[in-house]
Amino acid sequence: MEFVDALNARHSVRAFRDRPVPGPVLERLLARGATSPSWSNTQPYQIAVATGPVLEALRDDLSRRFERLAPLQRAPAWKKALAALRRDPGLPDGDFRPVQRYPDDLQPRRVATGRGLYRMLGIGRDDHRARHQQMAANFRFFGAPAALFLFVHRGLGVYSVLDAGIFLQTLMLAAVDEGLGSCAQGALGLWRSPLERHFEIPADYQLLCGLSLGYPDTDATVNRFHPDKLPADALTLARR
Ligand SMILES: Cc1cc2nc3c(=O)[nH]c(=O)nc-3n(C[C@H](O)[C@H](O)[C@H](O)COP(=O)(O)O)c2cc1C
């Protein structure tokens, strides 16, 4: 595939076909990701690859946790405190705190993207149930047959995160070249403990995010969503 075609074809896929990703394809994707540049070539990331029974166990575990978390998010402070005391499995135990409040200049972009997605799906502003279902789909990996989880070395701080981002984009583009689709997911960074059950995770590595991966369901409405991007000049600083 032409590089520019792969760039243009990549978008977040949120519905997948029920078709496994063959092992050699997954290995090829990881090998392509491994060509990425990184800080002093330290390659400060580790990847957990979940397929088959491990993926199913995670799908189950994360979905159950999300169903506990959702009502807690709306609960009064005392209920949250009680849940913390009881170590409620719905409370996130991820390594990074989710963003609570978006900066004023970024919030409108976030809102526009969210609105665009819900509009495409025909989900109304007050349809809390449908919104919940869409959020919950994150934890079922949108039906994908494979999921990756990215861990970054805490010792390099933001540079590990930067490197992991480069790795992720390389892998996502390589996926397009293989006819696969993907969705990077911060949501999959909410809980670390379910992953501890299935993978040997070094203590120095922090869970950053996940990625659902598989063959896109081309009939799914959600996959027609292509949010607008800023023109490059909006990202370029004016000269003094
Ligand atoms: C680090 C990262 C985390 C993301 N987390 C989520 C997520 O949790 N759930 C989701 O549906 N999309 C998630 N996305 C996808 C973004 O919403 C998407 O990239 C953005 O809207 C632009 O759309 P595009 O990928 O189709 O170009 C994430 C993307 C990135 C890069």
Automatic annotation (TrEMBL):
Sorted UniProt keywords: Flavoprotein, FMN, Oxidoreductase
A UniProt-annotated Pfam family: Nitroreductase
InterPro entries, per database record: Nitroreductase, Nitroreductase-like, Nitroreductase/BluB
Superkingdom of the source species: Bacteria
Domain Nitroreductase: residue ranges: 9-215
GO molecular function, one term: oxidoreductase activity
Protein name: Nitroreductase
Organism whose genome encodes this protein: Alloalcanivorax marinus
